[in-house]
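Key idea: predict the complex, not the pieces.
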Amino acid sequence: MAYRSAVTESTPVRWLLIGLAFGILSLFLLLPLAAVFIEAFRRGWEVFRDALIEDAAFAAIKLTLLAAAIAVPLNTLFGLVAAWLVAKFRFRGRSLLIALVDLPFAVSPVIAGLVFVLLFGAQGWFGPWLQEHDIRIIFALPGIVLATVFVTFPFVARELIPLMESQGNDQEEAAVTLGARGWQIFRRVTLPNIKWGLLYGVLLCNARAMGEFGAVSVVSGHIRGRTNSLPLHVEVLYNEYQFSAAFACAALLALLALVTLGLKSAIEHFTGSRGSGRH
Amino acid sequence: MSVSIQSIHKTFGTYTALDGVSLEISDGSLTALLGPSGSGKTTLLRIVAGLEYADPGSGGVRFHGEDVTGVPAGKRGVGFVFQHYALFKHMTVAANIAFGLSVLPRAKRPAKREIGARVKELLRLVKLDGFDDRRPHELSGGQRQRVALARALAIRPKVLLLDEPFGALDAQVRKDLRRWLRQFHNEIGLTTLFVTHDQEEALELADQVVVMRNARIEQTGAPQEIYDQPRTSFVYEFLGEVNKLEDGRYVRPHEIELTFAAEEGVHLAGRVDHLFVAGPFARLSVMPERDRQREIEVWATRERVEEMALASGDIVGLRFPTLPAGAQRAAADGFRGDDS
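Result:
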């Protein structure tokens, strides 16, 4: 858009600022990303492939996908319920609920991981009971899923709350007067109106679920081939000076990020051109 | 279907939206709930619809004698048209109209073909034939309004409720649609209740006007009655133009006789501040010489203005009716002019 308004800076200043923004972005975001891919392929395609199909790497990929496959649907459900409550009802404790939804964003992921160790670890509050019943949470899949769910909780809810608040209750009320019941209203009126926002939130949630390092690192125990997720596996490889393999796995994660970004832009473009939906 | 509302109380936290409101609406009538914003008229409409429940312990709502106070909105058989239409944005016009039928339990749901036929019939009724596949965002405000109406009528409601039906429309569309709704009501004879803050709309459209203020009903009656015999100063000021005289009396602009200042029996002399002639009518603003605080609106005939050869700045005399009909009635009912 090449319009000028009273608040616009003069052309040279504008170009300078735009140039600066792109310069910083390239230096801090684009360059490292490029470095990841260059390093990954430095010793050729074969090495890259071998690094990914090697047993420990394969197990890490599987674990990451599994954790995301459990955490993302759960958080989609939680997010929907939380957003629906906050946007459609006025109740005591509503602002507390909003604050709680944001908590995982405010808390360091490492602390999130430690909390679960404190609760379910061998020395934790429920540790003895869990041991008695032979249930493993920490240093096992359940712990990794819990940590992932905690860290990625806000994404769907945060995306939906402003969207649902701006849409108000009118269409749902119209559906009520026309005789629709709870589930019909959700499926036929609410869901179609929020589907793009929901998809967007799920996408971001998934990206974080697969990429989470801190929280998962605390609860995982780093058992190679068993409880190492992909990001943890990258770290292990790197510490063992297997740079090419580390960068190969990192490239896979980066690729995932790029696909997420691409899909996100596609959603924005699509909803934008339809003139309805988000924002 | 007649509607009977008995001493409804409604509070939102510490705010009182309705304070003991009772109202009878006869079968097949067109009733306007008229009042300024915050007077409780929309809350009353929503309580009749079942979208809001009256405070526990207060009265209830009856449809044709049957108590529906505890009946949920979806089972009351009311058609509700929302102020901003609330059309389902992601559905076509046809799907919007068919919605109420398509959510019926399988046993009661008409066959697809029947629903289709009903949609066509309704589209014809609201003069939108051929709009089946359009989306709400492709329609004008007036068209959306009529889709919302068709959607509400699809479930064959016993009562039709409209919240500010013309509030969001341009002046011209508003007038057309108002006339159309009046005709439409005459044709189908469905008991209809609508909310408005526009007195002209209420007077022109309704059989019965209910004037509301501060969570209470001020006066209920036929438009003519409300206009000619306002029972409170609020109703007097809210409906039509009115002048408040020094002695607290109210006089409608058309009740004032326009003459020369030197004539006998002139109650007040003043300068014509503004003169506007449209067709056979003339509107004047007169600034009294005694009391410069209150400008007085006078409606006269064009003939009279031309006869007197009046222009802005001239001095005229005003003669008020000895006791206006409205004031007489109001006085009889213990009416006092307050300055609210």
